[in-house]
Design brief:
The complex is a heterodimer.
Chain A lengths: L45 H26 L2 H4 L4 E7 L4 E4 L4 H5 L1 H12 L10 E4 L11 E10 L2 E11 L28 E5 L2 E2 L1 H9 L4 H29 L1 H25 L3 E10 L8 E11 L2 E5 L14 H16 L8 H4 L2 E4 L21 H17 L20 E7 L5 E5 L33 H7 L2 E8 L15 E7 L5 E6 L21 E6 L3 H6 L13 E3 L8 E3 L4 E5 L14 H10 L4 H6 L5 E2 L6 E2 L1 H16 L13 E4 L4 E6 L2 E6 L5 E4 L9 E6 L18 E7 L6 E8 L8 E3 L3
Parallel strand pairs in A: 10-11
Antiparallel strand pairs in A: 1-2, 1-5, 3-4, 3-6, 4-5, 6-7, 8-9, 8-30, 9-10, 12-13, 12-16, 14-15, 15-20, 16-19, 17-18, 17-20, 21-22, 23-24, 24-25, 25-26, 27-28, 28-29
Helix pairs in contact in A: 1-6, 1-7, 6-7, 8-10
Chain B lengths: L3 E7 L3 E7 L5 E7 L5 H15 L4 H6 L1 E7 L2 H7 L6 E6 L5 H4 L11 H5 L17 E4 L2 E2 L5 E3 L3 H13 L4 E5 L8 H13 L4 E4 H4 L5 H31 L7 E3 L5 E3 H4 L9 H17 L4 E6 L4 E7 L2 E2 L1 E7 L2 E8 L2 E3 L5 E6 L4 E8 L18 H7 L17 H15 L3 H25 L9 E5 L3 H12 L4 E3 L8 H8 L2 E12 L4 H21 L7 E11 L6 E5 L6 H19 L10 E12 L21 E9 L4 E9 L8 E3 L2 E5 L2 E5 L4 E4 L5 E4 L19
The chains are: A alpha+beta, B alpha+beta.
């Protein structure tokens, strides 16, 4: 379906990718001189279909692997910061690579823009490739360079192959081209709308020179370009071999059937899911150096029949250096759609997209106009566009007995805490790079089991981090510790995966210089689902002039920065030119996985195990899970009676009285809405009822939250690792808990700024 | 006179024994494996082999110059989670290295569908080493090998005591940068041996002194997990064959592609993992040398997996990292890649697209394919092969298992019905799908290493390989198929063990950029060569019989890809090292494509490696005299109807006894050759020839082009 700007957009246009983002229409205006290969057959036997389908998946996978191997850069090899896609002749997704997912998500609009704007002049021909990194055309940010490759058969455009690879540096005021201090995009890397860099199989040296000229690392960028070219050449050759063998109509027929099949799979799911409107709210903190603001993100997803409509109206206006464009916002959401709804079709999202519409609120900071700063988009505005989408989709899936197995709470580093460092390394050479350790991530809880500690990034299923020994060889630092961070995952019936924490001192150098760039340090960006508690916030900890070297002399290594003497210094979320001397310890902890369900309902035996492994502290076991663990460190035991008493007391505290027992005669359930809410029939009226005790809360057309017992607590109460928000932002932060007024069961939580209105997160469409 | 070579391979189901005498005569025996005490299966297979030679076990072993053993004890212990309770000691601050797994969730080696769907994805559960059995010790070395924090012996003692109190049966020690400064690990190892005598203790620097703490820790932990069980097995089997009359030490197959005396095997137990498939590649290398085939794709298809290894330019292709149980670990070995496509792979219908899929779920050996009649209900690749007539229901595994063709047909009926196909078409389609999967794997293995599959000959062995090889080899454009040595092809790993050399691989890491200091490089090689030679001395190899080959893993500075480059023997000077750099540039571009080299960057040497080996006596294969193209009449079993996709129908197809064919015999396809334990399928327009050694060579290129997939489906039917 064609996307359209939301009515709340700022006035203006055209939507051509110059000042306003390019938003493709249903019908593309393609120069008639470009012949498209439209023929296909639908008479394909199931065996041929399977063989060709498997080949196409493999071709796309190999495209990514080829780039990774040839590039050989740490970004490609560890972070897998690349992706590959195959599209039909007119830009519909066939396969979406399994690497850095958002990168495929931003590729289809770039194909469509190229078809509309390059088919007449300079023309799109056999053997051409187009290079593109313009976020208003579609790229995520300037460093994500796309190489678009049309594949021709007998003079007709048959399909497209694209790949995206993150580059070390494409210019701008900060080495590495992430520019946390940019005033606008003119402070950032070079912008290149699609240009024909390969013409009839030949690399255009003039165009390449323009591309490389802005970079601080032109040799590496040139090498990566060759990797990208080689990937497309290999994939093109394999597609042509398929066409030769099976005929163009069969190959095209298989491509169409992959999309059609994925479409029917999507429609089957939609038919089983309730209509309604699902919302999630989140925030980005600190738009530029010295700022103490918070910037709201609102995601609304309407599900009506077989259609999904997403909009970001209500999101704060574009500001500072935290923005993304429409394509980045949309491409991020595609990641969540693929993982939760299209995984069984190997992320062939093209079929689903026939029924999904995006309505960007142009001018919001997640759909910014030129020349807003967008270089930090993937680690900030795009992450904050993505993660709420997991929750809107999960809230839609939660009531279905089978599909709720696909629910996944927020994980990853829902806002990436950047550590940019520079200086002279232990080999006497200048260095400047990012600490990639936060990629170690965490996976949020599922509806039936815990999330995965340090399980990586959901937005990049096969990424990884380097070893400590790799970091210490490349950079002049000594890692005091890098380990899983106790209590970092959200507490819940199913726990969010823990993330990691790392601390280091400079080593082999006199000093190093840092810049921070983060958000999600005051307000957690991984709220849980259905009573699950949020994961921890990002946290920098910095201590000057410690006695760590004295510890070393005494043959000791500290377990925690807090054990060291020294002066604590609060680092702000965007702070530049921080000097770290030889005894100054720098620590950074990463946001973790959110949780599913009320922690009071977690099996005490699991809590005991968590305490034994160090995943959960005894204090958190008592305060959040209300489980009493006794016994020494090596043999913790659950005190069952004390635990039962504590858990009961928690309910009584909520209610101020004894809870009501479960209703003897429950209302007939029309459908489950979440673990905690049922849609019930009460004398011809549809009502929302507590799933635990069965009592009705409100009319189904109302916001259930307004009819629950609400208790507001400071955000620090939600996770032991969350600190005082006023260190970074002016706004107060609340942890709102909504309980059944009858039985005291926790129905849902809300993480928000003090004074923000209640979020109507699940608004079912009922008569 | 001791002139007999024996190779034994213990698999999950059978223990295979190959005996070769000085005249090159090969006899074989298969005995059921005995997981409760694997040494029993070894003795049983020896007894059977002796019987076929008209001897008893004692008589056979008295004549035996060398007995080489491939073992699955380690693999089995991992599969069944019956390894040791392992305690792990790490540098303080880094206890979670083995759990963090570099944040990759242990996905390498998993099917992509599991990677894409997070709810099905998890880290190993339970983990190899639980968090509660990991202890941290203060000590620290930096990237230059300088000690930053001296080893805290009090903490080390406490750590050992704590682990011992928790009942560990083995201790693994891995400290950061230990390969730059091994003393801390070795001191803790000595302490553990003193404090807990009899406990299995190993440290990373003695196993894989490589750069990267996760993969090094994993290797060390896996080794500790397997060490005690492997040691017990080695003791037992050694004792039993000694008692039965073997005068020489048993040699144990290693995944590096050589053997070591059994006394050395337990200390490095992780090197026995996957040694069975590796032995198959060695056998292929050995036969390739005999046949003058330098480039071989060695393919082994059994019940549950399809394994591929390569021989290029006469040498097996190596890798230095592997995955087991989702753990990536350092290990120098012959590279084997696997997919879960075997005879047991289940054929199913993908509902939404209405397409036919095969695997990755397998019916395994139990319940196995439907036609086994052991309770399997899902149709498998083997069932399809029976339906198509490839397999003779009365002569499967040499007639030991009667197959139920009707049950196979019935199991495919619902699927075929919903696909709108006949059962035979569905069976034929399933064959095509699985053969394409195999071709894809081989493509990845060759192309990603910079090789062109068209330069290779495919060797096909294992129970199911020769059924499908002619198709996947053709798909790849390979030069031909060799089904080796008739009946031996289903005991191929046992032959590989019998042909293996003594081999020790030693490594040393010193990351340095060019121009290299020849003295520094030479010093490393001297040190690791001395270690290899010392081991060979322990093996009773005379110093002048030792063969030493050097290599180095190199990369462009700032890049990750490492490429192994040969380093010349003898003294090293600047010119020799310049040549090594030039070889690196060339090899890099072969692998990654012209222009891929980052020539502006300096070149780094990361790992230096030495293979110290002593050549073993090789089986002497003797060519027979050629007896002409016409097979003798007693070689012909008769005919049976076999379905050929190329013809779109069943055709009455001649069937031959493989062991009655004579050298020089030529069979025009279509034809079926039955050898004990496997079946060779020769398609229409292909031909097969028996060579002078008893190999069946399938000629692929006499074929007119197979009609493309676009053609309407032929009308088949049974």
């Amino acid at each position: 379906m064609a996307d359209t700007p939301h009515p709340s957009s700022v006035d203006g246009g055209p939507y051509d990718g110059v000042t306003f983002p390019y938003i493709p229409a249903d019908q593309l205006r393609i120069d008639p001189r470009l012949a498209l290969h439209r023929d296909f057959t639908d008479k394909i036997d199931p065996i041929t279909y399977e063989v060709v389908r498997h080949n196409l998946w493999n071709i796309n996978e190999e495209l990514g692997m080829t780039i990774q191997r040839i590039s050989g850069s740490p970004v490609a090899m560890y972070a897998f910061d690349l992706n590959s896609s195959i599209f039909t002749e007119d830009g519909e997704f066939i396969y979406y690579g399994p690497y850095q997912l958002y990168m495929s998500g931003v590729s289809d609009v770039q194909v469509k823009w190229t078809l509309e704007h390059r088919s007449a002049n300079p023309g799109i021909g056999d053997g051409d490739m187009f290079l593109s990194n313009d976020p208003w055309v579609g790229a995520a940010h300037q460093m994500d360079v796309t190489l678009l490759c049309p594949v021709f058969w007998e003079g007709k455009l048959f399909c497209w192959i694209t790949n995206v690879l993150h580059q070390y540096d494409v210019g701008g005021i900060t080495p590495g081209s992430f520019c946390p201090n940019a005033r606008d995009t003119f402070d950032e890397g070079i912008l290149i709308p699609p240009v024909k860099i390969i013409e009839r199989g030949e690399l255009r040296r003039d165009i390449e020179a323009v591309y490389l000229r802005a970079s601080r690392k032109p040799y590496l960028v040139a090498l990566d370009l060759r990797a990208q070219i080689a990937g497309n050449v290999t994939a093109t050759r394999r597609i042509k071999a398929l066409i030769e063998r099976y005929g163009p109509d069969v190959v095209k027929g298989v491509m169409r059937k992959i999309i059609d099949t994925a479409e029917s799979a999507f429609l089957q799911k939609m038919a089983r899911l309730p209509d309604g409107t699902f919302r999630e709210r989140s925030y980005v903190e600190v738009a530029t150096v010295g700022d103490r603001g918070t910037y709201q993100v609102l995601l609304t997803m309407q599900k009506q029949g077989d259609r999904l409509v997403f909009d970001n109206a209500g999101t704060a206006p574009q500001v500072g250096a935290i923005n993304t464009t429409y394509s980045g916002w949309r491409g991020s959401i595609l990641t969540a759609i693929n993982e939760l709804l299209c995984w069984d079709q190997l992320y062939a999202i093209g079929g689903a997209l026939r029924h999904i519409e995006f309505r960007p609120a142009i001018g919001a900071f997640t759909s910014a106009t030129h020349p807003a700063s967008v270089s930090t988009a993937p680690v900030q505005a795009m992450e904050i566009s993505l993660y709420p989408a997991y929750n809107t989709l999960s809230k839609m899936l939660a009531g279905h007995p089978e599909l709720k197995k696909d629910v996944m709470c927020i994980g990853g580093t829902s806002q990436f805490p950047l550590t940019c460092f520079r200086g002279i390394d232990q080999w006497g050479e200048r260095f400047g790079y990012l600490l990639l350790d936060p990629m170690v991530g965490a996976i949020g809880a599922f509806s039936f089991r815990d999330g995965i500690g340090t399980g990586g990034q959901v937005r990049s299923p096969i990424c990884r981090i380097g070893n400590v020994e790799h970091n210490e060889q490349s950079f002049p630092l000594l890692t005091l510790y890098r380990r899983e961070n106790t209590d970092s995952g959200g507490a819940g019936t199913y726990r969010g995966g823990n993330s990691a924490i790392t601390a280091f001192i400079p080593h082999g150098t006199a000093e190093m210089w840092h810049e921070t760039e983060s958000s999600g340090a005051a307000i957690p960006t991984a709220p849980g689902l259905f009573g699950g508690y949020p994961a921890c916030t990002n946290a920098y900890d910095f201590r000057r002039d410690t006695d760590v070297l004295e510890w070393f002399r005494r043959r000791r290594i500290p377990d925690d920065i807090g054990e060291l003497a020294g002066t604590e210094e609060l680092l702000q979320l965007r702070q530049t030119d921080i000097r770290q001397g030889p005894a100054d310890v720098y620590e950074v902890a990463f946001a973790a996985g959110a949780s599913y369900g009320d922690p009071l309902e977690r099996d005490p035996e699991k809590v005991r195990h968590d305490v034994e492994t160090g995943d959960v502290s005894r204090a958190a076991a008592r305060d959040l899970y209300r489980v009493v663990v006794v016994g020494d460190e090596d043999e913790p035991r659950v005190d069952a009676a004390a635990t039962q008493a504590l858990r009961h007391q928690a309910i009584v505290e909520r209610l101020g009285r004894e809870p009501a027992p479960e209703l003897a005669a429950r209302f007939p359930v029309v459908r489950h809405v979440t673990e905690c809410l049922d849609l019930v029939e009460d004398g011809g009226q549809r009502r929302l009822a507590c799933a635990r005790c069965g009592r009705a809360l409100c009319d189904a057309r109302e916001n259930y939250k307004a009819h629950t017992l609400r208790i507001d607590r400071p955000i620090q109460a939600s996770n032991p690792l969350i600190g005082e928000p006023s260190r970074f932002i002016d706004a107060g932060v609340e942890f709102r808990q909504f309980h059944c007024p009858h039985c005291g069961g926790l129905v849902e939580n809300e993480v928000c700024r003090a004074g923000d209105p209640l979020l109507w997160d699940i608004q079912l469409a009922v008569e | 006179m001791t002139d007999v070579l024996i190779g034994i391979d213990t698999g999950g189901t059978f223990t295979d024994c190959v005996v070769i005498d000085a005249a090159g005569r090969i006899s074989t025996a298969k005995a059921p494996s005995t997981p409760a005490d694997f040494s029993q299966g070894v003795l049983d297979s020896l007894g059977l082999a002796a019987e076929r030679l008209g001897l008893d076990t004692r008589g056979l072993l008295a004549r035996t110059a060398r007995l080489a053993l491939g073992t699955t004890v380690g693999t089995n212990a991992l599969l069944q989670r019956r390894g040791a309770r392992v305690g792990l000691i790490t540098t303080r601050g880094h206890r979670d290295v083995i759990h963090i797994m570099r944040g990759a969730r242990g996905v390498p080696g998993l099917d992509s569908a599991l990677v894409l769907h997070f709810p099905e994805s998890n880290k190993p559960d339970p983990p190899l080493v639980p968090k509660t059995l990991i202890a941290e010790v203060s000590e620290r070395v930096d990237c230059k090998g300088d000690v930053v924090v001296e080893l805290n012996e009090a903490e080390a003692e406490a750590a050992i005591a704590r682990l011992v109190a928790k009942g560990v049966e083995a201790i693994a020690i891995c400290f950061l940068w230990s390969f730059k400064h091994p003393e801390h690990e070795r001191r803790v190892k000595a302490m553990a041996e003193r404090l807990a005598p009899g406990l299995f203790v190993c440290c990373s620097v003695d196993l894989v002194p490589r750069w990267g703490e996760y993969e090094r820790t994993a290797a060390t932990a896996i080794n500790a997990y397997l060490g005690p069980v492997t040691g017990r097995y080695m003791d037992r089997v050694g004792q039993r064959v000694r008692e039965a009359g073997l005068a020489t030490p048993v040699q144990v197959m290693q995944c590096g592609g050589g053997v070591v005396p059994s006394a050395q095997a337990a200390a490095r137990a992780f090197l026995t993992l996957d040694s069975g498939p590796v032995a198959g590649v060695l056998a292929s290398q050995f036969l390739g040398t005999v046949l003058g085939q330098k480039h071989v794709i060695a393919t082994d298809m059994g019940g549950t997996s399809f394994d591929v290894g390569l021989v290029h330019d006469g040498a097996p292709v190596a890798s230095y990292q592997s995955v087991v149980h989702q753990y990536e670990y350092f290990v120098p070995r012959i590279d084997i890649r696997s997919i879960g496509s075997g005879g047991g792979s289940i054929i199913w219908l993908e509902e939404t697209s209405g397409s036919l899929r095969v695997g990755p779920v397998s019916a395994g050996a139990a319940p196995g394919p439907v036609c086994y009649g052991r309770g399997g209900t899902d149709p498998t690749v083997t069932d399809a092969a029976v339906v198509l007539g490839y397999l003779d229901p009365d002569y499967f595994l040499g007639g030991r298992l009667r197959l139920d063709r009707e049950a196979a047909v019935r199991s495919l009926e619902p699927l075929a019905g919903r696909l709108g196909m006949s059962v035979v078409e569905a069976a034929s389609g399933a064959g095509r799908v699985v053969e394409h999967q195999m071709a894809d794997l081989i493509r990845k293995v060759t192309v990603q290493k910079g090789y062109d599959p068209r330069d290779f000959v495919v060797y096909a062995y294992g129970g199911a390989g020769p059924v499908h090889a002619a198709v996947y080899a053709k798909e790849l454009g390979a030069q031909g198929v060799v089904v080796p040595l008739g009946g031996v092809c289903s005991l191929w790993s046992a032959l590989g063990a019998a042909s293996a050399d003594l081999l020790h691989i030693h490594e040393s890491v010193d990351i340095q950029a060019n121009p290299f200091d020849p003295a520094r490089v030479a010093a490393h090689f001297a040190e690791i060569e001395a270690r290899g030679l010392a081991q060979l001395r322990e093996d009773d190899v005379a110093p002048d019989a030792a063969r030493i080959t050097r290599s180095a893993d190199m990369r462009y500075r700032g890049q990750i890809n490492e490429v192994e480059v040969p380093v010349p023997g003898g003294p090293l000077d600047a010119a020799a090292l310049d040549q090594v750099v030039a070889d690196f540039h060339r090899r890099y571009e072969t692998l990654y494509g012209a222009g891929a080299g980052f020539r502006e960057a300096r070149v780094e040497m990361v790992t230096m490696r030495v293979r110290t080996s002593a050549v073993s006596t090789k089986p002497a294969l003797r060519p027979a005299a050629e007896e002409g193209p016409a097979p003798p009449s007693d070689a012909r079993v008769g005919t049976r109807p076999v379905y050929w996709a190329e013809l779109g129908d069943f055709e009455s197809t001649p069937v031959y006894w493989g062991d009655k064919l004579r050298p020089g015999n030529v069979l025009a396809g279509p034809a079926i050759v039955q050898v004990p334990d496997t079946t060779i399928v020769v398609h229409p327009f292909q031909s097969a020839r028996l060579d002078l050694y008893g190999n069946v060579l399938i000629e692929l290129h006499s074929t007119p082009p197979v009609p493309g997939g676009a053609r309407a489906l032929p009308r088949g039917g049974r």
